[in-house]
Amino acid sequence: MDELSIDAYAFGILTDFRTRLFPGSARLVELADRVQYLQVEALCWCGARALHNARTISGEITVDGDQVLVGDVNSADAVAYEVLCRRHYRARLTAKNAKSAHISSQPLPFTSEGENLS
Question: Rounded to two decimals, what is the model's pTM?
Fold first, then answer.
């Protein structure tokens, strides 16, 4: 918006589940004076910064298929997405597959099972 002396800001996901730039994201990066990550960071199940959006089908990561996929989350071949760090994306290791526990050894003590807050 140089001609109008207006600053333009955009935010969103840069890449798809195959780590390929979305066409709109690619063009924005090409034209941007600056690319800045927000302070609020997505975290992988291991606690590391998550930069990759993994597509899972029936719990297994896939890097094949169309960029846009409409799936039925109630079917046997449920399609889902999980944010992962580079290491776990490359290893194709989701939280479920790693049988990971919560990244904190002590979850926040909101209530005990069966305890009433009233």
Answer: 0.58
